From TrEMBL:
GO terms for molecular function: zinc ion binding. This is Vacuolar protein sorting-associated protein 41 homolog. Belongs to the VPS41 family. GO terms for cellular component: clathrin-coated vesicle; cytosol; early endosome membrane; Golgi apparatus; HOPS complex; late endosome membrane; lysosomal membrane. The keyword Nuclease does not apply. It is found in: Cytoplasm, Cytosol; Early endosome membrane; Endosome membrane; Late endosome membrane. It is a peripheral membrane protein. Residues 788-836 form the RING-type domain. Gene3D superfamilies: Tetratricopeptide repeat domain (1.25.40.10), YVTN repeat-like/Quinoprotein amine dehydrogenase (2.130.10.10). Pfam families: Beta-prop_Vps41, TPR_Vps41, zf-RING_Vps41. It comes from the Eukaryota. It comes from Triplophysa tibetana.
Amino acid sequence: MTYAGRKPSEESTDDSEEEDTEEEPKLKYERLTNGVTEILQKDAASCMTVHDKFLALGTHFGKVYLLDIQGNVTQKFEISPVKINHISLDESGEHVGVCSEDGKVQVFGLYTREGFHENFDCPIKVVALHPQFSKSNNKQFVTGGNKLLLYERNWLNRWKTSTLHEGEGNISNVKWRANLIAWANNVGVKIYDIGTKQRITNILRDNTSLRPDMYPCSLCWKDNTTLIIGWGSSVKICAVKERDPTEMRDLPSRYVEIVSAFETEFFISGLSPLADQLVTLYYVKENSDHMEEEFRTRPRLDIIQPLPEGCEEISSDALTVRNFQENQCRDYRLEHSEGESLFYIISPKDIVVAKERDQDDHIDWLLEKKKYEEALMAAEISFKNIKRHDVQKIGMSYINHLVERRDYDAAARKCQKVLGKNMDLWENEVYRFKTIGQLKAISRYLPRGDLRLRPAIYEMILHEFLKTDYEGFATLIREWPGELYNNMAIIQAVNEHLKKDPSNRTLLTTLAELYTYDQRYDRALEIYLRLRHKDVYQLIHKHNLFSSINDKIVLLMDFDKEKAVDMLLDNEDKISMDKVVDELKDRPELLHVYLHKLFKRDHHKGQKYHERQISLYAEFDRPNLLPFLRESMHCPLEKALEICQQRHFVEETVFLLSRMGNCRRALQMIMEELADVDKAIEFAKEQDDRELWEDLISYSIDKPPFITGLLNNIGTHVDPILLIHRIKEGMEIPNLRDSLVKILQDYNLQILLREGCKKILVADSLSLLQRMHRTQKRGVRVDEENICESCHTPVLPSDTAQVFSVVIFHCRHMFHKECLPSPGTVPGMQYCNICSAKRRGPGSGILDMKK
């Protein structure tokens, strides 16, 4: 059985374009075989009805066969010598209704003997059992010939007949769903409500030019209230709705609304619902001009999406059924199983089953179209649901496809995902990549975690890189853990290559890394220092190699002074300061860097080298010499002075002279050698020595620029009058007026400051006096615990009725009046004996208690 998955009109002459644009079919097809094949070789199918559990097939020779889903015959009934027109089953599948061209109607139970047999004088085209025929008491069914008859049992167990409709030609189709019966005749489609016994609609057929016996109507209930009608090339979807009680009057309680109506390209032989879509079986007329010869008269099965005023085609398949050239529109039927999405295309000599494609079918199609990546993704997502495929096998097919296309990097990348933890497959792929000369492609994706290959595999790849790509080899050594391969074997191989190219930095760096993996850190350190590699310090710290660098300190300093000094100072417990100084004694510029940083960290730790540092600073770092001299407390001043005088370092010499107490000589150097009056004044201010000011004035008195500088700066330290009196008459002094104005301004400012301070002082004094007065006016508590400071007895008598006199001073010392000495020189004034050392101190008497 074959089908074409595209509309013939869209067929392209370009094969590659067709392959790119071909869409995946929505359905898959297979012939119903086994017993069906034998039946159709001798007979022809005329109708078929589908139940979830079995199939019922009627033939042109008047036989009815019950088949299982695979097409095997389970039961056979000989109903009539002529064609079976229709078979009906109830929902339970326990009762069957059959009608034939010679007017016979039989309704019987498959598991009971009860039944109905009747012969009519006209052909009966359709029979329909009540969906609940087996369970209902009145056993209703309808037959359709030249009229529609309803049969039901009465209470006497006899069959009662009612005519539902007649007079509009033969009844060609009937479908019963719940309480609704839909039928088609030559005029149109009617719907009858068996519950209310009312006909609720009449839908006229559109294609009146077509013979109804050649192009019969197709009916299908989507659910209990939705009827789908296909007739000729017209499709209508009708919804049965409840009428508003206020609008009923004499109208039926229900009405029908056509929710979608559209025309199709071909003639409809059958239709079935598929979720919210429709599966339609088309009959294609032979005289369609736009069809090519290959597709003529082959029936088509389409999936369409109904829209309010049209439809959208989802998929279209042209089917090659047996003897399709001889079939007419009325020879095809489409039946479906509601339990699962199975669609049966019935023709006289062939029965084809269409079903929705599952994930395995989807993967089959992707593999057929060589869309391996999509197939692999689909398999991974639905690995629990696929039955015929294996994710790893699909992945291997994808890898093989990529290798065939010579996309080796993509193939190697997919190995990581597809091969997973299967080490045997990994090794096979590695050897395959070796055979095709692409070991480099797969090297980046080899397992390197808990699961790993044999060391020989990794060594094979490393040797391959070592032959052709030093940089790639170095990258692998950095990325791969050292446990993956035999380190010694790789080290030996690298050394062999270094014999040919001993200065190759890439190989040397890689060799150092290999030595590090092998814990031969001293060898690695030698190479790093030789290469001046940035990782040398990290290696020393990480593996505590300080014992190995005692004789390599100069090399480390030459490489990076700052890092080396920081490392040495941070690890003084491992490399002593004396050892470093000894190693650097022949490289004074490096020794200075080390000692300078040591001094910055701790001014006292390297005190024994401070004398040496003076000459080092003088030689290599004069800007830091003066700060060093200022901050060092262990520097020999005489030695420092000697060095500074030899090198004519004036500022440093001035500092040393002042520190040694020879301020006059220091001031003299500033004035004579620096000729900087500002520095001289600053120096005098720092020393705050009157004699030094006198020397400065004396030296400057015959130098007008110096006099200007003094006038501008000494106002707050020396009385300017002393300087002004000593200026010779007639001497021209630059900016004298401005200097005098500044002196006056400074004087006025001082006066203002003094007056402001005086006001503040007076205000504060008054405030404090008032506070003291308020404090002294407060009462003082006296009780039995207070004692006389003179006789050390309680100041209050035990008998309070007794007359007593107590004196209490502001200092809170208390005395009996008789215990106090006589008043002093000032009559009426008494002083506390304890506080009398202070002249009129706070001990003045404040209270005289008498009783």
